[in-house]
Protein backbone atom coordinates (compact mmCIF):
# COMPACT_ATOMS: atom_id res chain seq x y z
CA UNK A 1 0.00 0.00 0.00
CA UNK A 2 1.31 3.44 -0.86
CA UNK A 3 1.90 6.13 1.73
CA UNK A 4 1.54 8.86 -0.85
CA UNK A 5 0.10 8.90 -4.32
CA UNK A 6 -0.85 11.39 -7.00
CA UNK A 7 -3.48 10.78 -9.61
CA UNK A 8 -3.76 12.72 -12.88
CA UNK A 9 -2.44 15.78 -11.10
CA UNK A 10 -2.28 19.17 -12.81
CA UNK A 11 -0.55 22.01 -10.98
CA UNK A 12 -0.14 25.73 -11.63
CA UNK A 13 2.10 28.52 -10.41
CA UNK A 14 0.60 32.01 -10.29
CA UNK A 15 -2.36 30.69 -12.24
CA UNK A 16 -0.25 29.30 -15.10
CA UNK A 17 -0.45 25.52 -15.54
CA UNK A 18 3.03 24.00 -15.45
CA UNK A 19 2.48 20.23 -15.17
CA UNK A 20 -0.44 17.98 -16.01
CA UNK A 21 -1.22 14.27 -15.88
CA UNK A 22 1.28 13.60 -13.09
CA UNK A 23 0.85 10.27 -11.36
CA UNK A 24 2.94 8.28 -8.94
CA UNK A 25 2.65 6.02 -5.94
CA UNK A 26 5.17 5.96 -3.15
CA UNK A 27 5.27 2.86 -0.98
CA UNK A 28 6.76 2.53 2.49
CA UNK A 29 10.52 2.19 2.25
CA UNK A 30 10.76 3.88 -1.13
CA UNK A 31 12.17 7.16 -2.38
CA UNK A 32 11.09 8.97 -5.53
CA UNK A 33 13.34 11.61 -7.04
CA UNK A 34 11.79 14.35 -9.18
CA UNK A 35 13.93 15.30 -12.14
CA UNK A 36 13.61 18.08 -14.67
CA UNK A 37 15.24 21.34 -15.68
CA UNK A 38 14.93 24.60 -13.75
CA UNK A 39 11.41 25.96 -13.95
CA UNK A 40 9.70 22.72 -15.00
CA UNK A 41 7.55 22.74 -11.86
CA UNK A 42 9.27 20.61 -9.20
CA UNK A 43 8.63 23.10 -6.40
CA UNK A 44 5.08 23.66 -7.60
CA UNK A 45 4.40 19.93 -7.56
CA UNK A 46 5.92 19.52 -4.09
CA UNK A 47 3.91 22.47 -2.73
CA UNK A 48 0.76 20.86 -4.08
CA UNK A 49 1.61 17.46 -2.62
CA UNK A 50 2.34 19.13 0.73
CA UNK A 51 -1.08 20.79 0.68
CA UNK A 52 0.22 24.35 0.39
CA UNK A 53 -1.73 24.94 -2.78
CA UNK A 54 -4.64 23.13 -4.40
CA UNK A 55 -4.22 21.13 -7.60
CA UNK A 56 -5.83 22.43 -10.77
CA UNK A 57 -6.99 18.91 -11.40
CA UNK A 58 -6.57 15.41 -9.97
CA UNK A 59 -5.82 14.46 -6.41
CA UNK A 60 -3.15 13.67 -3.87
CA UNK A 61 -3.72 10.81 -1.47
CA UNK A 62 -1.98 10.46 1.86
CA UNK A 63 -3.01 9.60 5.37
CA UNK A 64 -3.90 12.63 7.49
CA UNK A 65 -0.77 14.23 8.99
CA UNK A 66 1.51 11.83 7.10
CA UNK A 67 3.50 14.44 5.20
CA UNK A 68 6.39 16.59 6.45
CA UNK A 69 7.57 19.24 3.98
CA UNK A 70 11.07 20.69 3.85
CA UNK A 71 10.92 23.66 1.50
CA UNK A 72 13.69 25.72 -0.11
CA UNK A 73 13.67 27.94 2.97
CA UNK A 74 14.98 26.39 6.17
CA UNK A 75 12.02 27.52 8.27
CA UNK A 76 14.13 28.38 11.29
CA UNK A 77 13.68 31.25 13.73
CA UNK A 78 16.91 33.25 13.97
CA UNK A 79 16.41 34.48 17.53
CA UNK A 80 15.98 30.95 18.89
CA UNK A 81 18.80 28.51 19.51
CA UNK A 82 19.16 25.27 17.58
CA UNK A 83 17.60 23.36 20.47
CA UNK A 84 14.80 25.90 20.90
CA UNK A 85 13.96 25.78 17.22
CA UNK A 86 13.62 22.02 17.29
CA UNK A 87 11.73 22.09 20.61
CA UNK A 88 9.25 24.47 18.98
CA UNK A 89 8.70 22.09 16.08
CA UNK A 90 8.50 19.12 18.44
CA UNK A 91 5.71 20.90 20.32
CA UNK A 92 3.90 21.64 17.07
CA UNK A 93 4.10 18.02 15.96
CA UNK A 94 3.58 16.55 19.43
CA UNK A 95 6.87 14.69 19.47
CA UNK A 96 9.84 14.69 21.83
CA UNK A 97 12.82 13.58 19.79
CA UNK A 98 14.85 16.80 19.84
CA UNK A 99 18.07 15.39 21.30
CA UNK A 100 18.10 12.49 18.86
CA UNK A 101 17.57 14.82 15.93
CA UNK A 102 20.39 17.11 17.11
CA UNK A 103 22.76 14.16 17.36
CA UNK A 104 21.67 12.66 14.05
CA UNK A 105 22.23 15.88 12.11
CA UNK A 106 25.57 16.53 13.80
CA UNK A 107 24.34 19.68 15.58
CA UNK A 108 25.40 18.90 19.15
CA UNK A 109 28.24 21.46 19.21
CA UNK A 110 25.81 24.06 17.92
CA UNK A 111 22.87 23.18 20.14
CA UNK A 112 22.93 26.47 22.09
CA UNK A 113 23.85 28.71 19.14
CA UNK A 114 21.23 31.18 17.92
CA UNK A 115 20.03 30.05 14.50
CA UNK A 116 20.78 33.52 13.10
CA UNK A 117 24.45 32.86 13.80
CA UNK A 118 24.69 29.58 11.92
CA UNK A 119 26.37 29.24 8.55
CA UNK A 120 24.16 28.46 5.56
CA UNK A 121 25.06 24.76 5.66
CA UNK A 122 24.56 24.54 9.43
CA UNK A 123 21.19 26.26 9.07
CA UNK A 124 20.26 23.76 6.42
CA UNK A 125 21.19 20.88 8.75
CA UNK A 126 18.89 22.42 11.35
CA UNK A 127 16.10 22.77 8.80
CA UNK A 128 16.48 19.11 7.87
CA UNK A 129 16.63 18.02 11.53
CA UNK A 130 13.07 19.35 11.70
CA UNK A 131 12.02 16.40 9.51
CA UNK A 132 13.24 14.03 12.20
CA UNK A 133 11.23 15.70 14.97
CA UNK A 134 8.00 15.66 12.98
CA UNK A 135 7.69 11.91 13.42
CA UNK A 136 5.90 11.89 10.07
CA UNK A 137 6.43 9.03 7.61
CA UNK A 138 6.45 10.88 4.30
CA UNK A 139 9.26 13.39 3.80
CA UNK A 140 8.67 15.78 0.91
CA UNK A 141 11.87 17.71 0.23
CA UNK A 142 12.78 20.52 -2.14
CA UNK A 143 16.50 20.58 -2.94
CA UNK A 144 17.41 19.44 0.59
CA UNK A 145 21.16 19.42 -0.01
CA UNK A 146 21.55 23.08 -1.01
CA UNK A 147 24.48 24.60 0.97
CA UNK A 148 25.55 21.21 2.38
CA UNK A 149 29.18 20.13 2.07
CA UNK A 150 30.10 16.65 0.86
CA UNK A 151 30.15 15.13 4.34
CA UNK A 152 26.76 16.62 5.19
CA UNK A 153 25.25 15.38 1.93
CA UNK A 154 26.46 11.92 2.85
CA UNK A 155 25.13 12.30 6.39
CA UNK A 156 21.75 13.40 5.10
CA UNK A 157 21.69 10.53 2.59
CA UNK A 158 22.24 8.17 5.53
CA UNK A 159 19.43 9.84 7.49
CA UNK A 160 17.01 9.41 4.60
CA UNK A 161 18.15 5.82 4.09
CA UNK A 162 17.44 5.06 7.77
CA UNK A 163 14.06 6.74 7.47
CA UNK A 164 13.19 4.49 4.53
CA UNK A 165 14.46 1.41 6.34
CA UNK A 166 12.16 2.32 9.24
CA UNK A 167 9.15 2.25 6.90
CA UNK A 168 9.11 5.88 5.83
CA UNK A 169 9.04 7.28 2.32
CA UNK A 170 10.61 10.26 0.58
CA UNK A 171 9.71 12.47 -2.36
CA UNK A 172 12.71 14.57 -3.30
CA UNK A 173 13.45 17.26 -5.84
CA UNK A 174 17.19 17.13 -6.20
CA UNK A 175 19.92 17.44 -8.79
CA UNK A 176 22.36 15.70 -6.41
CA UNK A 177 22.83 11.95 -6.04
CA UNK A 178 22.02 11.11 -2.42
CA UNK A 179 23.19 7.55 -2.93
CA UNK A 180 19.68 6.18 -2.44
CA UNK A 181 18.06 3.29 -4.22
CA UNK A 182 15.43 5.66 -5.57
CA UNK A 183 12.92 5.66 -8.39
CA UNK A 184 13.06 8.65 -10.73
CA UNK A 185 10.15 10.62 -12.13
CA UNK A 186 11.13 12.72 -15.14
CA UNK A 187 8.75 15.68 -15.12
CA UNK A 188 9.54 16.50 -18.74
CA UNK A 189 6.82 14.00 -19.65
CA UNK A 190 4.22 16.05 -17.83
CA UNK A 191 4.90 19.56 -19.07
CA UNK A 192 1.57 21.36 -19.45
CA UNK A 193 0.62 21.90 -23.06
CA UNK A 194 0.82 25.53 -24.23
CA UNK A 195 -2.90 25.49 -25.02
CA UNK A 196 -3.55 25.02 -21.33
CA UNK A 197 -1.28 27.91 -20.36
CA UNK A 198 -2.47 31.36 -19.38
CA UNK A 199 -5.09 29.92 -17.08
CA UNK A 200 -7.19 31.84 -14.69
CA UNK A 201 -5.60 32.80 -11.40
CA UNK A 202 -7.60 31.26 -8.61
CA UNK A 203 -8.42 33.27 -5.53
CA UNK A 204 -6.14 30.91 -3.59
CA UNK A 205 -3.23 31.58 -5.97
CA UNK A 206 -3.79 35.33 -5.73
CA UNK A 207 -3.57 35.13 -1.99
CA UNK A 208 -0.74 32.66 -1.51
CA UNK A 209 1.74 32.90 -4.39
N1 LIG B 1 5.85 33.30 -7.53
C1 LIG B 1 5.79 33.00 -8.83
N2 LIG B 1 5.05 33.75 -9.67
C2 LIG B 1 4.97 33.46 -10.98
N3 LIG B 1 5.58 32.41 -11.54
C3 LIG B 1 6.33 31.65 -10.75
C4 LIG B 1 6.48 31.88 -9.35
N4 LIG B 1 7.28 30.94 -8.84
C5 LIG B 1 7.63 30.16 -9.87
N5 LIG B 1 7.06 30.55 -11.02
C6 LIG B 1 7.19 29.91 -12.34
O1 LIG B 1 6.55 28.65 -12.26
C7 LIG B 1 7.25 27.68 -13.03
C8 LIG B 1 7.56 26.50 -12.14
O2 LIG B 1 8.46 26.93 -11.10
P1 LIG B 1 9.03 25.92 -10.02
O3 LIG B 1 9.67 26.75 -8.96
O4 LIG B 1 7.96 24.99 -9.61
O5 LIG B 1 10.11 25.13 -10.89
P2 LIG B 1 11.28 24.17 -10.40
O6 LIG B 1 11.26 22.99 -11.33
O7 LIG B 1 11.17 23.89 -8.96
O8 LIG B 1 12.56 25.06 -10.69
P3 LIG B 1 14.04 25.04 -10.05
O9 LIG B 1 14.70 23.77 -10.50
O10 LIG B 1 14.69 26.25 -10.66
O11 LIG B 1 13.90 25.17 -8.56
C9 LIG B 1 8.49 28.40 -13.56
O12 LIG B 1 8.26 28.73 -14.92
C10 LIG B 1 8.62 29.62 -12.73
O13 LIG B 1 9.19 30.69 -13.47
List the helices and strands and how they pair.
Elements: E1 2-13, E2 16-27, E3 31-35, H1 42-49, E4 57-62, E5 67-70, H2 82-93, H3 98-104, H4 120-134, E6 138-142, H5 150-165, E7 169-173, E8 183-186, H6 203-208
Parallel strand pairs: 3-7, 3-8, 5-6, 6-7
Antiparallel strand pairs: 1-2, 1-4
Helix pairs in contact: 2-3, 2-4, 3-4
Bound molecules: adenosine-5'-triphosphate.
Keywords: ATP-binding, Cytochrome c-type biogenesis, Membrane, Nucleotide-binding, Translocase, Transport
GO molecular function, one term: ATP hydrolysis activity
Protein name: Heme ABC exporter ATP-binding protein CcmA
Q: Could you name the key traits of this structure?
A:
209 residues; alpha/beta; Rossmann fold; five-stranded parallel sheet; three-stranded antiparallel sheet; 6 helices; 8 strands; globular; binds adenosine-5'-triphosphate
Brief sketch in words of this structure:
The chain is an alpha/beta fold.
Bound molecules: adenosine-5'-triphosphate
Q: Report how far the terminal alpha carbons are from each other.
A: 33 Å
Tally of separate helices: 6
What is the makeup of the main sheet?
Answer: 5 strands, parallel
Q: Which second-level CATH architecture of one domain applies?
A: 3-Layer(aba) Sandwich
Q: What is the highest CATH level, the class of one domain? A: Alpha Beta
Strand content: 25-35%
Amino acid sequence: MSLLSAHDLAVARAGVPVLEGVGFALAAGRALVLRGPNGIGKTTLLRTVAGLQPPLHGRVQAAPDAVAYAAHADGVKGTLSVTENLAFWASVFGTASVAAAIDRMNLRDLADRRAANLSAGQKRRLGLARLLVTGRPVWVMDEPTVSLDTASVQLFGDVVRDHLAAGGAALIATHIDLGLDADVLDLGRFRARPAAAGGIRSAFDEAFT
